[in-house]
Amino acid sequence: MGKIPSSFRSMTSTHLVKKPTSCPLAPPRDPRNRIARRESVKISHHTDQVSREPLRNPFKTPDLSDAKSLFNSIAATSRIPLDLKFHNSVLQSYASIAAVDDTVKLFLHILKSQPGFSPEHSTFHILLSHACRAPDSSLSNVHLVLNLMVNNGVAPNQVTTDIAVRSLCESGRISEAMDLIKELSKNHSPPDTYTYNFLLKHLCKCGSLDVVYEFIDEMKETFEVKPDLVSYTILIDNVCNSKNLREAMRLVSALGDAGFKPDCFLYNTIMKGFCTLSKGSEAIIVYKKMKEEGVEPDRITYNTLIFGLSKSGRVEEARKYLQTMVEAGYEPDAVTYTSLMNGMCRKGASLGALSLLEEMEARGCAPNACTYNTLLYGLCKARLMDKGIELYGLMKSNGVKLESSAYATLVRGLVRSGKVAEAYEVFDYAVDSKSLTDVSAYTTLEATLKWLKKAKEQGLAV
């Protein structure tokens, strides 16, 4: 909920040029030349053996003259023509340890010394990715590589734009990526939807909403690159995370005006925003709207709604939606029941929440650590220490870790009841199970003991 779907993440996070951990650089070796054999680092007799046994980076230092010498040695002793893949591997290996300008100089050296070398997009994309990751606010190296492309008859395309934008964004240079995508759109190729949305997502994380909208308007008016459904989902997710729900609803209307229909994920995102702010009524309005639009709710929809209503103290309504969820064919899970338990504990109905534990187990739904800790906190908060201690014993036998709030409430309840020895035992379990650090667990216990001592000295009821 509230995040870009995994299908979209996979599409926007795949690198089109991958940086290999190792590089099968050298061609088959000539057994007559021992010097070349040593410098080429275990060159194989057969190319298929090279592919099976990847080599380490043969460039030991970023020194350009050494790199040229090594390349010349390999080229001079090779018994087969050096292909594009080999030359790209050379550049990729050297780029991993050298500066951008030296990598470009090695490229020019290869181009000059190898008449048969005809660089393609993949070659320049290696240089471009390296240039975009270099700390250069002026983007001079990026422009140098782009000019090299054009001068060698290789026109930048959408893949070029994608690699440049991704490399800049991954280096935290969002503003430069925004400027470059406009420049490439004007002179060469506008981005595809994946690149556009990738940059939009990073802009939403780092920039103000005004900057994001200005970028969208400029791309639409100048280059006819328009936002799609994924773009609107990114925007809505961003404003919901910023708790700007009014803007989220405006974007839903704008999305419809643009000819798109909100999907279940988008509605869930907005519902989550309202539920986080404990606005259960607004979440129900969104739920009803999606039903009216013919969008079928899924398990996340119901879990979100039940969470929001429970958080707002509207547990009875939440239970009604639990029944609706079952009738729709979705079995409640640990998230569903934990939300209900939390709501009931907030209302002081901790025993009712405990009965839900039996109900969920009867349905074959296994409680998780969050379920147990929610219940333990509620029982101890309600001073139902016998039930709390019993539940703690169950948690301990199952190896369930204690969360800090549940631990603190249990320890305070035990100390208040005069069961200091038991409180120390809980402290030992919290440390041994690595639920909390030694310092955190002991600080809580020590503060509770001091509080009890002070309360008794002042004659206060505990």
From TrEMBL:
Compositionally biased spans, kind Basic and acidic residues: 29-55
Region (Disordered): 1-59
Pfam families: PPR, PPR_2
Keyword Hydrolase belongs to the record: no
InterPro entries per record: PPR-containing_protein, PPR_rpt, TPR-like_helical_dom_sf
Keyword line: Repeat
PPR repeats: 157-191, 192-222, 228-262, 263-297, 298-332, 333-367, 368-402, 403-437
Family recorded in the similarity comment: Belongs to the PPR family. P subfamily.
This protein's name: Pentacotripeptide-repeat region of PRORP domain-containing protein
